[in-house]
């Protein structure tokens, strides 16, 4: 309890603020209708009230100032205490979560036996890992039975047939006013069943080349011919290739199997039945040995799957789409320990053996890893090819080439992958330090004065051989019939309805599996609802109580900003996944994504709205209004929920990142709230704002709707202090004296015990509403207008997303142009 | 290397001039545009108060973030806290109208 009270005392900070701010802001009270209304009913006593309150708070000014300091230090102390107590994130004990009913047997058993068996498992696992780390050159460490299963899986896996060739690839980007060449005269061929490595130092352009080949470059100028079987690339190229990115971006709430099925469903051609697609997923699961984690949720980085499992999943997701042309991988082994890296390369080898064409960039491979590759493309800085072609057994062919061209002999025990980067430094082979060597070949060591292997390559026989090979490959494949998938010129495999359905379903599942988020929503609604309810519990009929009705409703509207802050990160995270992977791979369209994020929020918001309404309405007002008023208010609460959801998403949809989105919210919200007619009554708004902003503010209509029904036909009974007292002129009763006035501006009069007339400003709630330009008769109109605002919000969400992913953003275009101009001037 | 509390204090110290600049900009615009009492003493008092209020609010929310574990939890708490702060300023509801269970009994502000 004491803790509770200590916390509640914090909330009392602001009550101190008002008198403290008082002296500075006192004149504002004079013009502020709210304070005036509090003060009393006549102007004269009002100004006297201000005088009194002025001197009153003036004497407390410095005392309150001291209080503020106390609070400040109190909070500071709490912050320090909290920081001290906070434990830094403990490494992340990765917990693997399984979907209900998909827990692998071994795990289930170990849970049942209380983990005693689990220990054995761990040992097994360790053994397995250590066996992987042994320098074995082939992948036959697996038991024979497993091998057999693999063979089956390998037979079922799609075989590529097409040959992908690229010639004379140049890639230039504008750079500081001039142009910079990132790739020069690169050529090569990717054949089915071959595992091709793309190597080079950092900055040599490995990833650039990979992106260029995958047609993922949207900037700069690309020249050269990219041909599939001698024909230009089909529109479905991006769909028909798999691209496993360096970053493993996945929807964290999905399970491994679901991720595969999602990819298969949306990326395999529409002619394939759903059952076949799902069956194919199981094949992929077997092939990549993911049977025991198939039912596990992926989780965010640091929890859920580990790095290697994630990488395998990334590859599996690409495979599940049945890439018919080839599979690109960007640095599949970086960030993994040697055991895991070996495992990944082993899988790639397996895929190549199964008939896939695999092209991957790779950084610092060990000799064992390097052994697994068939072909090599080696780049040096500036994007020039140093070597391209077959490696041969024990990299013989490559060694031969470098030795023929002036390199030193590669000692048999040296790692050829390291050696080839070191060819022109014959003396130091024993002291190989791969990192510095990579720098030497990549960045162009200024001390290096040997021959330029880029030039040598262009003049070599191997180069001519390769050119011929490419020509031949093109010729021989020219007349082969393509499969439908490659042929169809569809950008997306599935029709938009199927895309939308699948994505929406996944979004709903994701929400369902992040109960923390839903909890947050409900928690806020319940607490603010109850708080509002008991703050204004059982409002009476005095004028001030009508004021309170207004505030109670206003408070309802102010719960929006924290809720918006809550929903924006979810929106933006989802967009990041879409943006960084799924849009590039053309899995589904922007429309499907937008629909999914919009729809998934709505049921939760409606439920939350219902909860809020029940917590709030019946306490302050609902207990004695008509049934219609309650029902209508309920509808308005639901509309309000939809409104702020759309509002928040709309803001998020055109902000580039989370920070900007959360900064924009208060800005927009300030406008929406300031001019809604509560903070400053409409009649007192400056004409400029009243003439347009007041009519544009959605909260104006929401508020009018809420308040209109809440005060309709409610009597006003002034309190003693609220009456304006005066004596009637001689010969007239109070009634006859004020009759004309009441007819004109409302209110009622009664005779007080001391014979004075007591005049109350309002007789009914509706008259009170007129003071804020609120009329009951508008309530259905307001309802309609709020609906229109909601539709407008969602339209903005769709439009902003469309511009982001599809159209050229006109703003962005002009900005880059301006930047270019600036640069040109320099 | 250093105690976590030192980090919290350092952040606060860094805020002192930053907040002062913000408050100055804000108050210079608002104060004169709204036509508040144009005496030097009143103006500077308002700046001082505003600065202290801002610092206190910073400290309050920082305290929340230090105590709470995740962003989700933090938004929950702040959502409610902001409302409470606004409502019980005494501006929206005059203290005399506050309900006994939330209002005067334990809040020193009403009695003052």
Overall pLDDT of chain A, averaged? 74
Strands of chain A, count: 13
C-alpha termini separation of chain B: 46 Å
Mind describing the biggest β-sheet of chain B?
Answer: none
**Which term fits the overall shape of chain A?**
elongated
Q: What is the alpha-carbon Rg of chain B in Å?
A: 18 Å
Strand content of chain A: 5-15%
Largest sheet strand order of chain A: 6-7-8-3-9-10
Could you explain the architecture of this structure?
The complex is a heterodimer of chains A (826) and B (112). In chain A, the strands form 3 sheets. Chain A has a 6-stranded mixed β-sheet, sandwiched between helices. A 4-stranded antiparallel β-sheet of chain A has the order 2-1-4-5. In chain A, strands 11-13-12 form a 3-stranded antiparallel β-sheet, covered by helices on one side. In chain A, helix 24 (560-582) crosses helix 26 (627-654). By secondary structure, chain A is α/β, with parallel strands linked by helices. Chain A is built from 33 helices and 13 strands. Chain A is elongated. Chain A has 4 domains: 2-85, no CATH class; 190-213 and 233-463, Rossmann fold (3-Layer(aba) Sandwich); 496-715 and 777-817, no CATH class; 720-761, no CATH class. By secondary structure, chain B is mostly helical. Chain B has 2 domains: 1-67, no CATH class; 71-112, no CATH class. Helices cover 71% and strands 0% of the residues of chain B. Chain B has 4 helices and no strands. In chain B, helix 1 packs antiparallel against helix 2. Residues 103-112 of chain B have low confidence and may be disordered. Chains A and B meet through helix 1, helix 2, helix 4, helix 22 and helix 23 of A and helix 1, helix 2, helix 3 and helix 4 of B.
